[in-house]
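Could you join me in thinking about how sequence relates to backbone shape in a protein? Label the sequence line and the structure token line clearly, so we can match residues to local backbone shapes. Once you have written the record down, we can walk along the chain together.
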Amino acid sequence: MLNSPFSLQDRVAIVTGGGTGIGRAISETLAQSGAHVVICSRKMEHLEDASKKIQAMGRHSLALACDVRKEEDVKNVVEQTIRKFGKLDILVNNAGASFVCPIEDVSLNGWNAIFGINATGTFLFSKAACQEMKKQNKGAIINIASIAGRDGSPMMAPYGAAKAAVINFTKALAVEFSQYNIRVNCIAPGLIITEAVQKQMGITPESTADRFVKVPLKRWGNPEEIGWPVVFLASDASSYMTGETISVDGGPRAFEG
């Protein structure tokens, strides 16, 4: 794969929220494709184990605590990445959070918390990463949004609104950063089964079987099925793509006329 346009051999990536779920799968698929990976999360729990697995693949890795809502934390992750690897090629803004609640019961603090993690974190990391990628005149930023940012999601209005902001932010950055040869794209996952989804939100494949009526593939997605599209968008195989949002959701949008 070394000579393949999909190869990420010796490129350096940062993945936010990289210790569990979709973020961990993204980190591992990047490493499998040859990248060295820096993973960060607000809590160090799970990060060390994820980092060791990346190292077991023969790649280098850093595990760093970071609250993506705090600019000093974000700058520290980028600075430590440059200190260890000397460059930054790929940024994956994956850190996210959500909760299920009717909008009339959502507090301002709850609204701000969801926007802080999903949207503000994406802004802060993109801003910091751009400073380094500009020096190289090349880079790839991949934002992880959600189909909730494209379609109405009852009981999850703050999350859907924040992910819609990420999708639009992707387009704006793609135009603004194009002068530096930095590509910015987005992935909007659909129903992806992770431990967090099952435990925190009480959702299981059985409890959401009715949602597959309009999903042609009739199943949940797996975290790895987000990881490989990220590899594509991070690689030279997508060198003429920027500003795009790819839905990875089993196909419900195919029903739309």
Q: What stands out?
A: The chain has one domain: 12-190+222-251. The radius of gyration is 17 Å. The domain at 12-190+222-251 is CATH 3.40.50.720 (Rossmann fold). The chain has a mean pLDDT of 93.
